[in-house]
Specification:
The chain has 16 helices and 18 strands. The protein is α+β, with helices and mostly antiparallel strands. The structure holds one RNA strand of 76 nucleotides.
Length: 505
RNA sequence: GCCUCGGUAGCUCAGCUGGUAGAGCAGCUGACUCUUAAUCAGCGGGUCCAAGGUUCGAAUCCUUGCCGAGGCACCA
């Protein structure tokens, strides 16, 4: 805005002030400055100031805490010879009061010329106004950065989603809740890491650019390496590399990192998203169940600020989610039976029902694909969204990386965790028989359509790794963004990703 | 990719069956040493998302496109 440019020039030419500052040491966050208020010192100062007014020879012993604070101006009220401003930083808001009598003339001009959005540093004493507002009574005011862009409204703020996502930096200063959400996200990810490390898992990093995009069934993003003249895919999952580490001898590994899937965008999908995967040698899917249940519970307790192990519930939209252990468990086939009134292996009734529900390929597609469509259509809806629930024992046919049950090979040792209707993540007893794995991959490739076959290929090195020998293992995956959504009561994944993907402007 | 809704001042929004664009806040000038969305006096501010069409006349109606939101599809 032209007016801001003009003020910038006035600061430089009239006041000799450089509007883009430099290093400031010893800044007190605004919440701490507020907390530093000392009632006794404040009252003593008020008394002394009154006395000094009557008798100028009296010197004031000012014991109010001295602070340096810094922040963005979010309110500015100019009373002529007294200027009140609200500063905002990552910790909160605090009023700064600037009396013309108590600061150098240039500093007072800076204060009275300040605009919404400017960054100031202020030195002064923590006190209170006549109206009871805790504030910093300034003895110095310095312009640290003149904001040259028009700010969002001070009253209605910024609510346009497009601007919030495209200009997150404005969203963050205009909407303190946004900052709180991302502070919470950092705490959650940190708590997850601490939990995993406390259980002896080692964090690793595996390739994000892969010659073959394996470990899941999503469409990948394609890229190219120039000097090697080589097509690469952004990874859709780290699974096949983490398993190689089990082959190599690491017993317990995890990775928290981005996956990239070239699919649609909606409230719970962003093309790049953060996932954790973990693998434990000589474990199985029930090892993972205990671990994930404890992890989600522990993080929920931390977010809610309640003791570990006890009852804990957090709001999510209209729901209150109960994160107390144990989570519910239900077997896939039992849920199917409950939803449809017949067994999932009753092919005739499965296909007939699928036809009634207009499932594509009801008569011709593989039975288990039809079963799973019915399951997703009707059975998942039976889960109580406010109770985290493990759905156990998926059909083997739709679980290509999972070890079939010894007792009943048609069932795979796999579960999925559902919370609030969202799939948070699966876990498997990992398939470590190279011959069966090869057969499953080959089978899967046969079923690939033309588009799929352009990016799907057989990862022979992974089969080689299995032939070298991977210990029996449990493995899990978890969508970190979705977990953060749940724990921060955010209804859209865009509200927990700092810079969600947007179309180019 | 499909369907629905939306895009008007810096922000939040109003603008009826078509008649030439408004409010509040923000901004600018001035006053004010205790404000809390400060107050008071005065002043400026628009590619009505874009292009095309219908019409004497379009922010408004039609078509197409762009961007966003929600839903559907896709996402083992």
């Amino acid at each position: 805005m032209a007016a801001r440019r003009a003020k910038l020039d006035r600061l430089r030419t009239e006041l000799g002030v450089e509007p883009f500052g430099h290093r400031v040491d010893g800044i007190t966050p605004l919440d701490r400055a507020r907390a530093a208020f000392d009632e006794a010192a404040h009252l003593a100062y008020e008394e002394a100031a009154k006395a000094a007014k009557a008798d100028p020879s009296v010197t004031i012993d000012d014991r109010r805490p001295a602070v340096t604070v810094a922040g963005r101006v979010v309110q500015h009220r100019d009373m002529g010879k007294l200027v009140f401003m609200w500063l905002r930083d990552h910790s909160g808001d605090l009023q700064v009061s600037v009396s013309k009598a108590n600061v150098p003339e240039g500093a007072f001009k800076v204060a009275s010329m300040a605009d919404y959005g400017d960054l100031l540093s202020v030195t002064g004493r923590v006190g209170r106004t006549n109206r009871g507002e805790t504030c910093v009574w300034a003895d110095g005011v310095t312009m640290q950065c003149k904001s040259l862009e028009p700010p969002p409204g001070k009253w209605h703020g910024l609510s346009d989603d497009e601007t919030r996502y495209r200009r997150r930096y404005v969203d963050m200063y205009a909407n303190p809740d946004t900052v709180r959400t991302f502070q919470l996200r950092s705490r959650i990810v940190s708590a997850i890491r601490r939990f995993m490390e406390s259980r002896g898992y080692q964090e690793v990093e595996t390739p994000m650019m892969q010659a073959m995009a394996g470990g899941a069934a999503a469409r990948p993003f394609v890229t190219h390496h120039n000097t090697l003249d080589m097509q690469l895919f952004m990874r859709i999952a780290p699974e096949l590399y983490l398993k190689r580490l089990l082959v190599g001898g690491l017993p317990k590994v995890f990775e928290i990192n981005r996956n990239f899937r070239n699919e649609g965008v909606d409230r719970s999908h962003n093309p790049e998203f953060t996932a954790m995967e973990a693998y434990e040698a000589f474990g199985d899917y029930m090892t993972m169940l205990e671990m994930v249940e404890s992890l989600v519970h522990a993080v929920a307790c931390e977010v809610a600020g309640v003791p570990q192990g006890g009852p804990v519930a957090l709001p999510f939209g209209d729901l209150v989610i109960d994160y107390a252990k144990p989570f519910r468990r239900v077997r896939y086939e039992e849920l199917f039976q409950k939803a449809f009134g017949f067994a999932m292996e009753d092919e005739a009734r499965v296909r007939a029902t699928a036809k009634d529900l207009h499932v594509e390929g009801a008569a011709t597609k593989d039975l288990w694909l039809v079963v799973n469509e019915l399951f997703e259509e009707r059975a998942e809806a039976l889960l109580d969204p406010s109770k985290p629930t493990f759905v156990l024992d998926y059909p083997s046919a739709i679980s290509p990386l999972t070890r079939p049950s010894r007792a009943r090979p048609v069932i795979a040792e796999r579960w999925d965790l559902f919370i609030a209707g969202m799939e948070i993540g699966p876990a498997y007893t990992e398939l470590n028989d190279p011959d069966i794995q090869l057969a499953k991959f080959t089978e899967q490739l046969k079923g690939a359509d033309e588009e799929e076959s352009t990016f799907r290929s057989l990862d022979e090195d992974f089969i080689t790794a299995l032939r070298v020998g991977m210990p029996p293992a449990g493995g899990m995956g978890m969508g970190i963004d979705r977990l953060v959504m749940l724990l921060s009561n955010s209804q859209s994944i865009r509200d927990v990703i700092l810079f969600p993907l947007m179309r180019a402007e």
